[in-house]
Amino acid sequence: MISPFKISPVFEWNYRTTKQIVINQGGTSSGKTYSLLQVLACKAAEESNQIITVVGQDIPNLKSGAIRDFESILNNPFFRSMIKSINITNREYRLHNGSLIEFKSFDNEQDAKSGKRDYLFMNEANGIPYSVYDQLQIRTTKQVFIDYNPTFAFWVHDKLIGSSNKVEVFISNYTHNPFLKDSIREKIEALKHKDKNKWRVYGLGLTGNVQGAIFPAINWIPKMPTTGWKRSCLGMDFGYSNDPSTLVRLALIQGQLYGELLLYKTGLTNQDIAKEFSRLGMRKGLRTGDFVMADSAEPKSIKELRNLDWRVRGCKKGADSIRNGISAIQSYGKLNLVNSELWKQEQQKYVWTIDRKDGRAKNKPVDKFNHIWDAFRYGEQGIRKNKLNLVSYGS
Fold first, then answer.
1. How many CB atoms lie within 10 A of CB 93?
2. For the structural domain made of 218-385, what CATH number should be given?
3. Residues 256-293: pLDDT tens digits?
4. How far apart are CA 336 and CA 354, in angstroms?
5. Residue 197 burial (CB count, 10 A)
6. In this structure, are residues 299 and 376 in contact, taking their beta carbons and an 8 Å threshold?
């Protein structure tokens, strides 16, 4: 093993394993990202003509995290001497032996289909969609490494851990980092008495509860009730290449709000959406058809669907419309939603913005993981503001 630097237990675990998928769940300052980059640097140096891809949720995150760590590793004269060239623009490091280490992000599943590699590192994987991971791992020949802080369960827990004997899981925390400064160690250990969930996640490296979730309590149900519907509406959020078009059915039953995800697809034209409406058994008719409250930011799409005799109307937007819509949904108390893996993922990730200075949630939602929730918000507006015009599915 080429090892011209001091190593941690986390390095040892990952360097020695022969499993195809290696998952690193860890608390803050456990050294998991740094150690994994050291492992990959060793593999690049020991094996000629290897392609190693480090993937982050976006380029700014990579630059402030993994790339900065890798540059620190290259301060070691031994590894620096093995670098033949660096392409800063493309974030590529080429070694004299032909190996390549590249840092990339991918917008969507289609984007991830390009290129093949020997080793893959999914850095901070809880910010990357499973569909992107899936396409990348299919095109990886040797090993996949994954790391993340376990702030909440996500696709790694649902689809990978415990799924195969080809998967290995390492759980690390600050005690596994022998190079950690005492001042940082003291701050981490202070969490033990301040915040139990943060201590669990960032101190111990164990999976935590969702923090700052906008809709934290959901009653997941197997299917929509068939009776007792007072009012109903469909909510529609338009998308195309990067974002999905989503359609949600809502019902007001005995004062409680129920919802079901009907459509979640990318690449749909308005003609395709109309076909999906028909496939779902929706009724046409501008006056008597099934009512859809859609995103008013897409007037052309709404007009085209209305020209095809679908009863679609744009929602009303204005100052603070997102927060007002969230408040309106929260006013129902319990939400009853038909069990959906996609919706569960959004429920866990749709959170309030956190103030980095004091760690408190702001009254502003993060504009991510909200495609289904946006459609739900439009549909709720339909139920609330168009009480006399809605078609009921139930009796």
1. 26
2. 3.30.420.280
3. 999 999 999 999 999 999 999 999 999 999 988 999 99
4. 27
5. 14
6. no
